Amino acid sequence: LKDMADDFLAGTSFEDIKQQILTKVEKKFNTAQLLRKQLHHEVGKKVIKALLDSKELGFTTFMEFFNNYKDANKVLETNIFAYHPKKNTVSFQSQSIECYIREKEDIFIK
After folding, report:
1. Contact at 8 Å (CB) between 84 and 78?
2. Which pLDDT score, from 0 to 100, does residue 110 have?
3. What are the residue boundaries of the structural domains of the chain, listed by start?
4. Regions of the chain where pLDDT drops below 50
């Protein structure tokens, strides 16, 4: 966030900063194998739709979307989703993640 604020103060346009953030987020989705034709795309779409509807899921509910817990943990480790141990829930890691999903709704929502 500080880097983005520095860029803005240096005269970088809001749109350029937004694009930088979305590019970083897209790299996370690639690492998580959540993009089209990647290993976790279809299950990821289901998780994303559920989170868009409810904002958070119980940890067990999140895990049950996947064929096995090993895959679920790998996706969770990529920082697309955040685990909240006190409530034992999962949500989107950040607003930039949710923004990316809405920008790319043809990939994740439809």
Report:
1. no
2. 76
3. 2-108
4. none
pLDDT in tens, 47-64: 999 999 999 999 999 999
**Biggest CA pair distance of the chain:** 47
**What span, in angstroms and rounded, lies between the C-alpha atoms of 22 and 4?**
12
Whether domain 2-108 has CATH 1.10.760.10: the reply is: no
Structure tokens at 52: 């868009």
Token pair listed for 78: 């990529």
The three-state (H, E, C) secondary structure of 19-77, written as one string: HHHHHHHHHHHHHCCCCCCCCCHHHHHHHHHHHHHHCCEEHHHHHHCCCCHHHHHHHHC
**How distant, in Å, are the alpha carbons of 10, 36, 43, 98 from that of 71?**
41, 17, 10, 21
